[in-house]
Amino acid sequence: MGASFSAEDGLQSVPALLRRNATTLANAPAYREKELGIWQTWSWSQVQEEVQALALGLLQLGVKKGDFIAIIGHNRPCMYWSMSAAQSVGAVPVPLYEDAVAEEMVYVLSHCSARFVIAADQEQVDKVIEIQDRLPQFEQMIYADPRGLRKYNHARLHQFSVVQDQGRAATDAVRSELDDRIAALDYDSICVMLYTSGTTGKPKGVVLSNRNIIVSARNACDFDNITSNDALLSYLPIAWVGDFIFTLGQSMWCGLCVNCPESKETVLSDLREIGPSYYFAPPRIFESMLTTVVLRMEDASRPKQKMYEYFMAHAKNVGNDILDGKPVSTIDRLKYAIGDFTTYAPLKNALGLSRVRVGYTAGEAIGPEIFDFFRSLGINLKQLYGQTEASVFITLQPDGEVRSDTVGVPAPDVEVKIGANGEVYYRSPGVFVEYYKNPESTAETKDADGWVATGDAGFFEESTGHLRIIDRAKDVAKLSNGAMFAPKFVENKLKFYPSILEAVVFGAARDHCCAFINIDLEAVGNWAERNNISYASYQELAGHPQVLDSIQGYVEEINRQVAVDDMLSGCQIHRFLILHKELDADDGELTRTRKVRRKVITEKFKDLVDALYDGSQHIDTETEVTYEDGRKGKISARLTIREAAVQTPAQKVAAE
Question: How far apart are CA 417 and CA 432, in angstroms?
């Protein structure tokens, strides 16, 4: 039986929780990391020693209370220990996206005036060195992986392990100072500052307190009975609030074990080895998993394909009901059990999801077909609705009440209301303290009574009390005929198809909808290989007539589905084109969490949007792109615009 803790424990900071875990769960596994093919494990008592050594070393480097310490790197135990060590000395950890380009990094480091940086490896060290002349407040940098750094100037560079060794040799006076700083921390102390993805402008620094993180983590653990017996795989960006609340907040509260993969490339194989019981992924990960499944089945023998199609059709009919404990006939249960033995269990095992007891997806709306696919396999996947400003949790889905078209009921201690304009508002113990150095935006987002404007449009179902999110409030609009326009609704449906990686739908104030499509190079490339179709680039494959035919079929199928929705039937896509490049965060078209920057895309590809609406059949275009090494270049293309068949809305058919 795993350990569980109550609110009465009275611990009001993350370092205090760590000290409790080091005593109560001393020998239980706290962190694992795969290195050189071998899993290394640290117990809670060992983690406490690692964090304390680093914290003492930070004190000797001159870290003051209130200092901001930037932490840059991938998911490694030492990166999370760095956050805890920063908190222990009264400083504020500021995790950054490891793939951030120089301009993004300069903005964040300058905005928070970070004096210290803790970097994972040479790549991150090089980035900071490149921009250090633009960071007058920057003083010292610590690096975890010494490879490639031996001949660097170490006047302001310090190896992680050396700083820890210096901490272990600290005097009693320094140790006493650390104890005093930890004792001074309370619920109102700043726990972390996380920067928003900057969908509509410059990222904002969201200040979250110990109260925000600890109470939110505690309530979420209680809601799904997460305990020290649970394990999760930590692979999402450390700068993202979802990773912070799960990997640091909830792990510290309930003592669950955090597992870090060897690299980005080994995430799926490491996931299979760990078999986490608690799993979180944004929709794009589940979309990628589904693409992998479809590609494997296309390469399977015909008998295996037939068996897969038969049992997946059955799972679609009864899988959700069985998972939710609803009445299902004995014959259907028996057939499902056979399907589990032959299809569902092997599939879950191949994906690394066999042991998942609770799974969550959030960050963006997930396509209902994708969501239902995983639940039909018997995976207890749920949606949660959250924001950085809420310390993640706004609504949660109780067991037995999980649906693809709602995001559940208000999380414990969270109040939710709908404004007169349909915007969703909430208040809770997780509500952020402020936007750093931005009182105007703070006042616009959070009112004097603590209500926060989400920027999302939604409504509560009267019959169930569940919240439905329509789209971003700024994106929900009207077509010129007055019909509702909600682009994300259609985009998520399109992304159910493995061949479609991304979609951007236009239509606000226009008489019909049009779309940009990004193909999935892996999925479509696999198809091309099986059909002996040669191609030299993404651009060439995207413009192939057979690819256009295939995408047109998907668009028209989605139009048939959308036509039966009384509220959103006007969102059918009349014309579309396949973009000549993948939308990319480095080009500013996506955020680092892969959210579409609609305004940027609309302005950058204005010629293509105009062509969609002026009746053109082709359009010649030139676009600036950023290569992996940071160089800029331009690509030219001639794009084909396709017409898609649209359906008469169901309500009109009924009226006739």
Answer: 18
600 CB burial (10 A radius; 0-12, 13-18, 19+): middle
Q: Which residue has the tokens 């909830």?
A: 250
Question: What's the DSSP call for residue 105?
Answer: H
CATH of 7-208+243-248, one of 1.10.260.40, 3.30.70.260, 3.40.50.12780, 2.60.120.970: 3.40.50.12780
Q: Can you tell me the distance from the alpha carbon of 619 to that of 631, in angstroms, rounded to the nearest whole number?
A: 26
**How far apart are the C-alpha atoms of 508 and 481, rounded to whole Å?**
10
pTM of the full structure: 0.83
- Amino acid 75: pLDDT: 95
Per DSSP, 120 falls in state S
Q: 182: closest CA among 14, 24, 70?
A: 14
Q: What is the dihedral of CA 463, 468, 473, 478, to 10 degrees?
A: -70
Mean pLDDT of 161-188: 97
CATH code at 396-474: 2.30.38.10
Q: How many CB atoms lie within 10 A of CB 179?
A: 12
Tell which CATH architecture fits domain 477-655. 2-Layer Sandwich (3.30)
CB within 8 Å of 607: residues ≥ 6 apart: 619, 621
Contact 388, 196 (CB under 8 A): yes
CA geometry: angle 487, 491, 495, nearest 5 deg: 175
Strands 513-519, 358-361: pairing is: unpaired
Crossing angle of helices 14-24 and 44-61, rounded to 10°:
140
DSSP string covering 561-620? HHHT-TTTGGG-EEEEEE-SS---TTTTSB-TT--B-HHHHHHHTHHHHHHHHTT-SEEE
Residue 35, φ and ψ in degrees, nearest 5: -135, 125
| Domain boundaries defined on the chain | 7-208+243-248, 396-474, 477-655
Token pair of 440, please? 């105007």
Cα 355 vs. chain centroid, distance in angstroms? 21
Angstrom distance (rounded) from CA 482 to CA 568:
11
Strand order in the sheet with 140-143: 92-96, 68-72, 116-119, 140-143, 157-159
pLDDT for 653 beyond 60: no
Using CA atoms, how far apart are residues 47 and 41, in angstroms rounded to an integer? 10
**Least confident stretch, 68-72, 447-451, 455-459, 503-507:** 455-459
